[in-house]
Amino acid sequence: MNRRSFLSTSLCATVALNVQAGAHDDFFVAIHRDDGQGLQTLLRRGMDPNTSNDKGQTGLVLALQLGSLHAFQALVNAPRVNVEVRNAHGESPLMMAALKGYLEPAHLLIARGADVNKTGWTPLHYAASKDQPAQEQMVALLLEHHAYIDAASPNGTTPLMMAAQYGSMAVLQLLLDEGADPLLKNQLGLRAVDFAARAQRPDSITLLQAAIRQRLPNQGQW
Fold this sequence. Notes:
Helix content: 55-70%
Organism: Giesbergeria sinuosa
CATH topology of the largest domain: Serine Threonine Protein Phosphatase 5, Tetratricopeptide repeat
Number of helices: 12
Number of strands: 0
Largest sheet: none
Pfam families: Ank_2 (PF12796)
Keywords: ANK repeat, Repeat
Mean pLDDT: 90
Protein name: Ankyrin repeat domain-containing protein
ANK repeats: 89-121, 119-154, 155-187
């Protein structure tokens, strides 16, 4: 290869890299701006909807985290989208939808094959950990799609424990009504009632103590 051909090839490669880098930046700018139309244009030009940024955050998870629901819609409808692509923390789009209480996005993700029962922290853990109006419906949706009610996180925490410390009374009651086990312990030997006590939530403590009494009717103090 002569010097002129080498320079021409190098220049083309540099231009291609710059174009690729520019599209990558535009992709995440569009998500931050909730620019669904801009994202659709990038996707039509061949942008991978499963792209991650330099912090390992994926487009779908980021859109839900930011509340960029137009951007989410553009991404979730992309032909090449993988609804199970996870960020650097192992969070799936369904986990983020569950955390934020976004029912319609959760429906869409489940319809496209999102894993309701991924290993480790699950969408149900995330849904149970928030006290906001949509969470009871979110928990019900996940259970309807066969979410394992006593799923254990890597440290043995269950959705009931998360609800006891962080969630609403409605979610706590729903989990108990659907069969969540209040006797389970995490790796530190803590039950859901201990989580409620740690958070100083007397109503949750009372509810969980009653549930334990039903499971252990001859245990006196419970």
